[in-house]
Amino acid sequence: MPSELHYARQSGILLHPTSLPGRFGIGTFNETAYRWVDFLAHTRQRIWQVLPLGPTGYGDSPYQSFSSFAGNPYLINVEELAADGLLDQALLDQAPDFPDDRVDYGAIYRWKLPLLRQAADAFATRATPEQRAEYDTFCAAEADWLHDFALFMALKDAHGGAPWNQWAMPLRSRRPKALAQAEKTHAAAIHAHKFNQWLFYRQWQRLKVYANDAQIRILGDIPIFVAMDSSDAWTNPGEFYLDDGYQPTVVAGVPPDYFSVTGQLWGNPLYRWDVMKSNGYRWWLRRIHAALRLYDMVRIDHFRGFAGYWEVPAGEPTAVNGRWVAGPGAHFFETILGELGELPIIAEDLGEITPDVIELRNRFDLPGMKILQFAFSTDATDKFLPHNYRPNFIVYSGTHDNDTTRGWYEQSATDHERDHFRRYCRTDGHDPAWSLIDAAFSSIAVIAIVPMQDVLDLGTEARMNLPGRSTGNWGWRLLPGQVNEQVADRLLATTLLYGRDPALYAGKEAEAGGQSGQDAKGAGGRMG
């Protein structure tokens, strides 16, 4: 981890870009995203945490992506395409009336993807020489994954969305003659998917530079496992436990616990760590390098899987009949460290954590996570209570997988938890979200991050994800004008009160963060 994270107190906000307000049904990399960065800078937040930015499939989960390397075309700003002459403005003027408060992914799929295809088809005749040169440079720079991904998506389109391990065997097994024929047959579709990736990367990188210039770093997310129906699995089948027909023989999950008597059956294919070790973890190194082009640092979801993971035979209806299997352990992180020179990694160390997981995390000095909503179920010894922290942790009021704090307090928490929370936070419970924000920001944890829903003190209706629920997730959006001056003033005051702006420590013990030009101007009091 970069050394500054061990002593520079700072804070940030968790908000996925899809949740930003805007005209076209989903948050994008448009002007509103830049005003969001202004808001973060004005309130002295130094971290913007996002969920995985990859293309999503069934269920719309960013944790089940078609690729570990590609970006989500839903996030592309189509207004920029009109401004660049690649789309007719009339097409945007005729856009459907999308809801403001939720992402209707089905409607986005039906409207936006065909619109992007029109822009891709028009690129040959409408693109400027500069745009064509930039596109060609991008395709060459990303050649180690881009063509395979674009071919994968074109073939999925041609197969009506069917998973790759249901395609005809010549395509399933990537026989050269079948691939060559597919490349000819689907050349236009392959170009369209490459075009979407060029748009995504150029727009996101521009936004990321803007954030970095405002001294805001992007904290991204790497799911430990990949989706079975992904370009990753299709192009690297030998690195997963698959049979001769390319069906998984074992899949990922978690065992039964207090929350579920049958565990959780995730269904992701499991890595052949022996194969990966023998080739120097080549695919993982590519994956982490790609992630660090998108983000400044990454959270690895389900970190405990590197110490040991729950293996379930394929075809089991639940995760009950699984077993623990040793992960790659320290050798994996030593390899990554040797490649990168540092580990800009946060360990998502939640769930059933055993001593080997803690040992692995501590051996590489990786920050772990503390969730305040988990802190009140026992007594003063609870590891999630702030007085039990060490500095090298990231504290959250809750995450995308939790209820909002108001929803937790009013609906999810037990009577014991509510009573313990009120006594610990010295509150009557009228403002639960900000009571936990105060607890997070005042703690000794080096970083405090809170979901934007808690900053706005929203209820369960604003929850991002309910694990185990197959539909209705990932749709929450900010309303236009919801992030106003009063919200900004309160967040700024709390950040300064608890010393979460590194600039406060300039010339003292901690690293000076400095103030951005936007800070000095007081930009971003209102967004959207």
Care to describe what's here?
With about 525 residues, the protein is of the alpha/beta class. It has 3 domains: about 1-50 and about 370-528, TIM Barrel (Alpha-Beta Barrel); about 70-210, no CATH class; about 215-365, no CATH class. It is built from 20 helices and 12 strands. An 8-stranded parallel β-sheet has the order 9-6-3-2-1-12-11-10. The model is unreliable at about 1-5 and about 510-528 (pLDDT under 50).
State the secondary-structure class.
alpha/beta
CATH architecture of the largest domain: Alpha-Beta Barrel
Spans with pLDDT under 50 lasting ≥5 residues? 1-6, 510-528
> For this structure, what is the CATH class of the largest domain?
Alpha Beta
User: Which shape, going by the Cα principal axes?
Assistant: globular
